Amino acid sequence: MTDEDRPRGYLIALRHTVVALDLAQAVADFDPTAPVLILPGPAEALSALSQVTSLALAFVAEAPAAFRGSPLEAAIRARGGEVVLLGEAAELEGETMGYAVLLRPFTAENVAACLTEAAARRTRMALS
Q1: CA geometry: angle at 86 spanning 81 and 4, to 5°?
Q2: Which one is the CATH code of 9-127: 3.30.110.10, 3.40.50.2300, 3.40.1550.10, 3.20.20.410?
Q3: Cα 44 to Cα 110: distance, rounded to the nearest angstrom
């Protein structure tokens, strides 16, 4: 199997375990064959990405100003991944800084909408 044949994975970098597991279940419902990597924060996520070749999307609990230009952002983008930020700072500044934001409280439908929008953008980019 080549890297192109492998399913694109998902990353969840969030210290709140229950919320991370809710996100992972919503991702699994949307894309059952894709791997989902759950890590407690950006440093752990960056380290784990050294073993990942392709990402569809990453949910990251990080302030937009801290995330912008970070090694984690670069690693996610280098693997083809899109980013959805979570948390209070993301809700306050994320969209104005150009990031997708998952607002709290979220439902499985909100997560599915993020995943659907990201998949549609990938399809449009592949066709252009």
Answers
A1: 15
A2: 3.40.50.2300
A3: 26
* Residues 88-119: tens digit of each pLDDT: 999 999 999 999 999 999 999 999 999 999 88
pLDDT of residue 7: 63
Joined tokens for residue 89: 């700072």
Give the separation between CA 7 and CA 35, rounded to whole angstroms. Answer: 7
Taking the C-alpha atoms of residue 9 and residue 98, their distance in angstroms, rounded to an integer, is: 23
**Cα–Cα distance, 61 to 5 (Å, whole number):** 29
Q: Are 9 and 54 in contact (CB under 8 A)?
A: yes
Give the number of other Cβ atoms within 10 Å of residue 89's Cβ: 17
Residue with tokens 């991944």: 81
> If residue 84 lies in a helix (H) or strand (E), which one and from where to where?
strand 82-86
Q: Are 84 and 102 in contact (CB under 8 A)?
A: yes
User: Which pLDDT score, from 0 to 100, does residue 6 have?
Assistant: 53
